[in-house]
Design a protein that fits this description.
328 residues; alpha+beta; Rossmann fold; Tumour Suppressor Smad4; 6-stranded antiparallel beta sheet; 36% helix
Length: 328
């Protein structure tokens, strides 16, 4: 858990969940992180046979650290979603209720899921180059702690404003593609509950390569709107390919993100892991979206999100300027 990075209610929620775990008979050892890399180190230490399972309490970045710390250890992993996006929680349908989360962590079934690696780092949900990586690289962590998802809205707008056309080379299955951006998905959800690769599944030993073929601000805006409407996979200039490995190249030193952190630079190779990870998750009949879907029609939902984008930009711009002065 990363207590210094969480809003005040999240540590309280964590302790409620852990209290439920103890009532179920689980012996819980809590390790709190103070710096990047701590979660990975703690998970590595847990692989010595002392524990029956490891629980990652935090967001997708914390989960990624734990996955990398576990390495080849055969320990089951459970997650308590306390982050901003909680993409993995949405993907596996975790309950929101504290008692149900505790029962799942303490008593739930571990099923195999497949990770992949890039730049020597494993990832569980996605990797990306181009616009996706630029947004991740530009996120102000202090602003993210204060306003949550609106920090991503602000950075998307900032990247649109300074966007420059570019091309990457993605080599897959003996064919070279030249997209403007690409996302390599292990699950169907992206940036919360937006569907990017509908056929992708964590238990499927495959990567789903999503290629955005057009460049420019207008193209990026079009892709974003289609994603809000759940239709990006239907666009004629978006290609989705299933593969086990691929090679990325392009501008020397261009960034690669994985699970919401910058982990490598180009050129880079992405490949499936040799063996699956054991992830504790709800049964197929129990799984529900972690964030309840809106009952609004898609067009009204997109309109509401667009309004939030505009309001978010106005609300966060002064904070962003102050933050940039504090963190040059």
């Amino acid at each position: 858990m990363k207590p210094e990075r969480e809003p005040a209610d999240r540590p309280l929620r964590l302790h409620r969940i852990l209290a439920h775990c103890r009532r179920l008979g689980a012996v819980v050892v809590l390790r709190e992180t103070t710096a990047r890399g701590d979660a990975e180190a703690f998970a590595r230490e847990a692989g010595d046979g002392v524990f029956d399972a490891v629980v990652a309490a935090g967001g997708d970045g914390t989960i990624n650290e734990v996955v990398n710390g576990l390495g080849e250890a055969d320990l089951p992993l459970a997650i308590l979603p306390l982050g901003t996006g909680n993409v993995l929680a949405n993907e596996i349908g975790l309950p929101r209720d504290a008692a149900r989360l505790a029962a799942l962590a303490a008593l739930g079934e571990a099923r195999p899921v497949w990770t992949a690696s890039v730049g020597g780092r494993r990832f569980l949900m996605m990797a990306g180059i181009g616009f996706d990586a630029a947004v991740v690289a530009g996120i102000d962590e202090g602003l993210k702690r204060r306003i949550g998802k609106l920090a991503f809205v602000k950075e998307i707008l900032a990247q649109l404003w300074q966007h420059r056309d570019g091309r990457y080379r993605v080599s897959c299955g003996g064919v070279d593609y030249l997209p403007a951006s690409a996302v390599i998905a292990k699950g169907r959800f992206y940036a919360g509950r937006f569907v990017l690769a509908p056929a992708a599944r964590l238990d499927d030993p495959a990567l789903h390569l999503v290629l955005f073929m057009r460049s420019g601000r207008v193209a990026v805006l079009r892709y974003l709107l289609a994603m809000l409407l759940g239709r990006v996979h239907l666009l004629p200039d978006v290609r989705i390919l299933r593969t086990a490995d691929l090679r990325l190249s392009g501008p020397e030193g261009a960034l690669v993100e994985a699970d919401g952190d910058i982990v490598a630079t180009l050129p880079a190779t992405i490949a499936l892991a040799d063996r699956p990870l054991r992830l504790i998750q709800p049964g197929l009949a129990e799984a529900r979206p972690y964030s309840e879907p809106s009952s609004l029609p898609r067009w009204r939902r997109a309109s509401a999100i667009a309004r939030r984008v505009a309001l978010g930009w106005a609300a966060t711009a002064p904070h962003s300027a102050a933050s940039s002065r504090r963190n040059p």
